[in-house]
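Section handout 9: paired folding examples.
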Amino acid sequence: MSTPAASQPEERPSSARPWGSAARTAALVGVFTWQASPAWAAASNGGLAFGALGLAGVGAIAAAAGSIAWSRRRRRNNSPAGRAAADPNQRYGPGGVPVASEQRHTAPAESAVPLPELHKRAGEALIATDNAVQSAQEELAFAQLQFGDEAVAPYQEALEQAKQHLQQSFALQQKLEDSIPDTEAEQRAWIGEILARCQQARQPLAQQRDSFSQLRAMETNVPRALDEAVAAATALQPQLEAAGATLDRLAQRYSRSAWQTLPDNLDQARDRLEFVDTAAQEARGHVDGGNRSEAVLEVRAAEQAVAQASELIGSIDRGARDLEQAERSLRDAIAIAHRDVAEAEATAQVAMRTELTGTAAGVRSVLAGIEAELAAGTFDPLALSHRLSVVSTELEKALSGLREEHERDRAARATLDRTMVSAQAAVTQAHDYLSGRRGGVGSGSRTHLAEAERHLSDAQRLRNTEPSTALNHANEAIRLAGSARQEAQEDVSSFQGGGFGGSWGGSGWGGSGWGGSGRPRGNRRDLRGAGGAGGAGRNAAGLGGAVLGGILLGSMLDGLGDDDAAHHITDHFSGGFGENLGNALDPGELLGGLGDLGGFDF
C-alpha cells in the first residue's frame, strides 16, 4: 500500500496558543466520536487518501483558520438508507440505496464523483464510525458499573447492531484494498454500501441517545460522576505498578520482538491517568463557575481516559498470558515435530519415498535452530512457533497420503491448535495497540484488524468441524493482524512526528522506568509540554496521550484560542450515545454536503 505525501499542518510553538479553558473545551468535542486523524494518506485500490489532521480523517477541517464549517442539517431520516430497516443482510446500490441483488443504479458519467474521491470518503466514514462505536463502548462500560447489566442492556444491544454494520463495512473495504482487480462498477457499489452501512451503524446509537442521557443525568450529577472517575483512576495505580513488574519479567525471558509494543502501552496508560487529573481540575473549575455543560465534557473525557488506561494496563497481562501460552504450545509442537520427523525418516527407508527424506531434513534443521534459541536465553515464542509451523505443515502434507484418516485428523488438529494460539495472540496485540491510539491511526490498519478479527472468529467457529478451513482462517488472521499492527505503528510514528509529538502534552513515566522499575524509556518520543514542570506544561499534563487516544482533537488544540470558536465547536460535541450523535455521524454532512446518500452521483 503506497502512501502519497500530504501537507503537514504548520507547526507552532506552544506559547503561540495559550491553553485556555475555552480552547480546551473546544478540543473536547472529540470525546466519544470525531477523533484526531493523522496527517498522512493511505492509498488503496482506487486511491484512498486522507487530508491533513481532519476530524476523524476528514480533510475538511481548516486548522489554519481555527474553525470548522459544518452543516447542521438533519437529513438522516429522509435519506433512503435512513429509512431502510437496520438489516445487516440488506444490499445497497452505488448510491447507498437498498436494492435487490440484481438491481444496479447507474448515474450519468458526466455527474459522477471521481473514484479516488469516493475512496477517500469511504475511509473517512469508516474512521468516524469506528471511533464512535469504540467511544460508545467505553462510555457504556462506565454506565454498566453505575447501573448494572440490566439497565444498560438496550444500549448494549444497540452497540452490537452498530458493530455488525461496521464489521461488514470493513469487510467491503478489505475487498477494495486487496490485490484482486475490481471493476469501477464494483468499487462504486461497494463504496456506496460502506457509506450506507456506516450511516446505519450510527442509527441504533442515535435512537438510544435521549434515553441514555436520561439514565446518566450527567449535568445533575457532575460532582458524583467526577469523583467516581477520579476514584477509578486512583484504583488503577497499583495495577500500573504491577504491570511494570510484569514487563520486567517478560524482558528477562523473551526477546524484545515478542513484547515490543507493551512498554508504550504502559507509557500511554500513565498519560491517560495524568490526563484524568487535568480534566478533573478543569471540571471542578467549570462547576464552580456554574458551567455544568462544559464540566460534563471534562467528565466524559476523564471517563474515557480511565477506560483507555484500564485497557492499556490490561494489555500487559494479556500479552504475558499469550506469550506464556505460546511458549507451552511451542514446546508441545517441538515434541510432535520430532515424532513426525522420525516417522518420515522411517517411512522413507521402508517405502522408498525419497521425497520425505529432504522434507524431514528441513524440519530437523529448523528444530535444531529453535532449540538452540530456547537454550541460549531470551526468545520469541510466537516467531518460533510460526517458523516451525511452516515446515511442519509441509511435512504433514508429505505424510498425509501415507497415514490413516485418524492420524491425518490428529496432525491437522495439532497444527491448528498451535496456530490458533498464535492467531489469538497476534489479534490481541494488534487490537490493544490500535484501541489506545485511535486518534493517530487511519482506515488501513483498522480494516486489517477488523478482518483479522473476522478470520479468527471463523477459525474458532470451524475448528471442530472443518479443521483445514479453520487453519486457513487462523493463518490469515495472523497475517492481517501483523499488517494492522505494523501499519498502525507507522501511522502513529507519522502522527507524532507531524507536530503533535513534541509540541505539548505528555507526562512521561514519573521516573525512568516501567512502573518505577528503573528501565529506560527507550525510543519513545517525549510528549512533554514545552512549559516543562510548570506553566503550560503542567496545565497540559497528559494532553499528548489524550490526542493520540482520540479523546481530544489535536487540530483544535493547535488552531483555537478564542471563546467564540470554542462555543461554535462545542455545538458539535457528541458521545457514543451522547448529544448530537446523529449530526456528527451523518455521512451526508461528513462527505462535503453532497446531500442524502441516495442523492449521491456515483
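Moving on to protein 2 of 2.
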Amino acid sequence: MFISLKISNVDKLPPGTATSYAARDRSFEIGRENCDWTLSDPDKFISGRHCEVRYQAGGFWLYDISRNGTFINGSSQRMAGPHRLAHGDRVLIGRYVVSVSIDEGRPASGHPQIRAGSTQRELPPSTGRPLDFSNEPFFSPAEQRPGQAAPASTSSALQPPPTPAP
C-alpha cells in the first residue's frame, strides 16, 4: 500500500523544506528533527518527533507523540488515540496542513520531495547490495608505495601482524 503526504499550505514553508513524503508498506516518523520527514519549524510548534505513521494490519495508522497535538480533518480536539489514515484525510501538524493520499498500486520512493529552489538534492536509489570490486587491489602497482606489495586479499587485512623472529 502506498501513502503520499503533501503540505497544502506551501506558502508557510521556508525554502528547502520538503513539500511531500511518500512510502510503501512501511512506518515512518514526522517531526522537527532527525525524522524520516523533517519539517522546518523555527517557532517550535512541531515537536522533535511529532507523530508516527505506522504500517499495521494492511493500513497506515497515525500516532500523535507530540506536546502540542496533531489534529485530524479540521477537528479542534487533538488526537486521543491512533487514527487509521484514509485517502482525503487532512492532518494539521504545527502550522502545516497535510493532505493524505493512499493508493494500492503506485510506487513510492520513500524519500521526501524537495520544494523548488532548494539546494537539497535526492540521492540515487540504493541497489541494496554492497559494491563489488571483484577482489581487485585498490591501488594499481604504479600507485603503490615503493617497496610495498598489495595485500593478497581483503581478508589478510583482518589477520594479526606476523610475530617477529627471535
